[in-house]
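Researcher: Next sequence.
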Amino acid sequence: MLGEVVRGAVSPPPHERRRERRTALSVPVRIRRGEQGGGVAVSEATGQLIDISMGGLQLALPGGGAFVPGEVVRISFAVPSGQRRSVPFSLVAGSARVVRVTSRGENNEEVGALAFCGNDLSMLGSIVYRS
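Model: Next structure:
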């Protein structure tokens, strides 16, 4: 689904672990952890999306946000209209499982690779009107 519509996606380099093509996209991502009954999150954080593929995404969490491999989190982000040529969705929300964590940079950022969880993902499309 996403792999068919993501434009400008590049094939992963030989050392890449992901199987799907990915597209660079830098937007803020809301991360909700430990959601309890009634949709109340135990904690919330804001990260920065690095890239997205059909199977998941990679994002940075400033200040060492302590991703935990195996943890399932709720993610949501909006795609600005100017970036919808690469990713034709206006809003993405759902569950994702942390599969890998690395650290990078001077700001003590943690980078998490997250895999989308089954059917618990909504991608709202955008309609481009041309005159």
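Model: The first strand starts at residue 22 and ends at 24. The chain has a mean pLDDT of 78.
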